[in-house]
Design goal:
With 209 residues, the chain is mainly alpha-helical. Helices cover 69% and strands 0% of the residues. The protein has helices spanning 2-17, 22-34, 38-48, 56-69, 79-83, 87-90, 94-108, 110-113, 119-135, 141-158, 162-176, 183-195. The chain is globular.
């Protein structure tokens, strides 16, 4: 049974994350802790939160900022080439299409992004990745506990309560998973974790973690 669980975890890691060994696991954990999917979205939010629409001149200024700060993870190898394109060709790029999608998301969810953004989504994925890596025998239990303690302290400094954490997680889920059939189920789970007297969240306060 243990071997079957290990093989299943390895298949999930390979299919969902593209991870095949310890080295790739540590790289993914580092990415989630330092950047995750939040870095790109938060970058767009900080730049365009006061804009009503995407203006090509502002987009070019944004690209210039990204080149100077090396912020944009998804298109880090293409950003210089994108900068040299004509306006017409720039609007056809995957970079611009993603920027459009991110802009639409921040306009829709603007009031929910101010405090924590989607950091809770990345932190939850970090813990989930630890669990899978342990099941797949890529990480030992002691390694997982050490990393879990470190990310718990990170969350302690970032979030003031479980409500903020769960809202940030759900916001990230809405961003990352389109047509999410399980959203309502996870929304209910978060509700129960916050309100059930027997919930572990009510035995360990967020700032006690």
């Amino acid at each position: 049974i243990v071997e079957e669980n290990s093989d299943k975890a390895k298949r999930v890691l390979k299919k969902t994350w593209g991870l095949k060994n310890r080295e790739s696991i540590f790289k993914a954990l580092s990415f989630l802790k330092k950047n995750g999917v939040r870095r790109e979205l938060h970058s767009v939010f900080n730049k365009f939160q006061t804009h009503d629409e995407l203006n090509i001149d502002e987009v070019r200024n944004y690209i210039k900022d990204l080149l100077e700060t090396s912020q944009y993870i998804s298109f880090s190898h293409e950003i210089e080439k994108i900068e040299s394109l004509s306006d017409k060709d720039l609007l056809k790029t995957k970079f611009y299409k993603k920027l459009e999608n991110d802009f639409s998301f921040i306009k829709k969810e603007q009031s929910n992004l101010f405090e924590y953004g989607i950091t809770g989504w990345d932190m939850t994925n970090y813990v989930n990745l630890l669990k899978l890596a342990y099941k797949a025998n890529y990480l030992k239990i002691d390694e997982c506990w050490i990393l879990l303690e470190k990310i718990s302290k990170e969350c302690h400094h970032l979030f003031k309560d479980w409500k903020g954490f769960s809202e940030s997680y759900l916001l990230g889920r809405r961003y990352a998973l389109k047509n999410d059939k399980d959203y309502k189920r996870f929304e209910y789970i978060c509700f129960k974790l916050q309100n059930d007297k027997l919930s572990i969240w009510n035995h360990f306060l967020c700032n006690d973690v």
